[in-house]
Amino acid sequence: MHKAGRHFLQIPGPSPVPGRVLRAISKQTMDHRGPDFAEVGLTAIAGMKTIFKTKQRVFIYPSSGTGAWEAALVNTLAEGDKVVMYETGHFATQWKKMASKLGIDAEFIEGDWRSGADADRIEARLRQDTGHEIKAVCVVHNETSTGSVSPIAEVRRAIDAAGHPALLMVDTISGLASIDFQFDTWGVDVAVSGSQKGLMLPPGLSFNAVSDKAFELSKTGGMRRSYWDWQDMDAINGSGYFPYTPGTNMLYGLNEAIAMLHEEGLDNVFARHQRHGAATRSAVRHWGLEVLCRQQGQESGVLTAVLMPEGHSADAFRATTLQHYDISLGNGLSKVADRVFRIGHLGDFNDLTLAGTLTGVELGLRKSGVPHTEGGVAAAMAVLETTQFDTVAAE
Question: Which residue in 7, 124, 293, 324 has a CA-CA distance of 20 to 30 Å to 168?
């Protein structure tokens, strides 16, 4: 049955795709070995370097972000190698599970799913490793399951303070292009991302940003690999081509999305996300509900995870809200399944979109009989009015 109006896709990714990006993707597919494709490939690779804020290598895969997770691991680590990962939530847990399946000895620093990684605990663990058996530290930048952000620059300082040679690997699948990420300045060795979050594309592209240190290690280290091999990518990327069929039309869309981000200005993009995150948290607290992230300063501008009151099902609330108000909210994952719902406020998103999103949530709370104090939308609007920011010049 047709429903009037647009569907509100307010999960924390995939995010809604802007019309400009959809139109770019819809262009006729070209010969990915022909002379005209080189400009498309070179533009995409150069553009992604500006988004990662790196002058080092960026590789683009036709895959989900999970593929780029695997590429990061198999190019740098051998079976039996030891890595330390920090338990920030579901996606950190899934990355650890993948590492274990590949034969990597993955150790978790236990977390409570309510904050980002603790750099001091990472430093303490590395200081214990006097034999330097740990080959990498793996951290999720923006944990999509909890709405907590890890301080990546602090993690790098912790590694350096411990005098440890471990690689720093970062999953910024849901953080990139929404929250500031500085690959070179922060000293990241391998970063992982995907197309369907802040880059405002459908799922289907993934990325590795790779430091010179990690790339040199991959020449003689890592595991057997073929599809994910950085060496094969590097050998041909310089001319704008790929060692196998790329996601041609997705690259059209990627180039358009990167242009849009720079037209707005990356600093403006980051400020917009932070502002919408603050307004959303104000609404949640006015409703009398609890934000899952409780570490001040680590709350995400990408999404807000909300704890339901005891005795109320987050999944039942989401189903009711979808049925009556045509809005999709993110579900709780693994440890917080049916206890949490997630409000996505990322990508192609403005003040009016936020007002509509929060109105849908408040209507859903009322319809579902969830105890709350009405007026959360007004509380959010008050934050927006008092947190206007001066935009900087377009890049």
Answer: 293
Which pTM was predicted? 0.96
Helix (H, G, I), strand (E, B) or coil at 31: coil
Both tokens assigned to 188: 């990241």
Residues 347/200, Cβ–Cβ less than 8 Å = yes
SS3 80: coil
Pairing type for strands 105-109 and 82-86 reads parallel
Q: In whole angstroms, give the CA distance from residue 248 to residue 245.
A: 8
Exposure string of 262-293, with b = 16+ CB inside 10 Å and e = fewer, is eeebbebbbbbbbbbbbbbbbbbebbebbbbb
Q: What is the pLDDT of residues 103-141, one digit of tens each?
A: 999 999 999 999 999 999 999 999 999 999 999 999 999
Q: 283-313: per-residue pLDDT in tens?
A: 999 999 999 999 999 999 999 999 999 999 9
Q: Distance of alpha carbon 336 from its chain centroid, rounded?
A: 19
Within 8 A by CB and 6+ apart from 82, the residues are: 104, 105, 106, 107, 133, 134, 135
Residue whose structure tokens are 């289907």: 204
Question: Do 62 and 205 form a contact (C-beta atoms < 8 A)?
Answer: yes
Q: Quick one: CA torsion of 13, 350, 198, 98, rounded to 10 degrees?
A: -30
Rg of the chain over Cα atoms, rounded to whole angstroms, equals 21
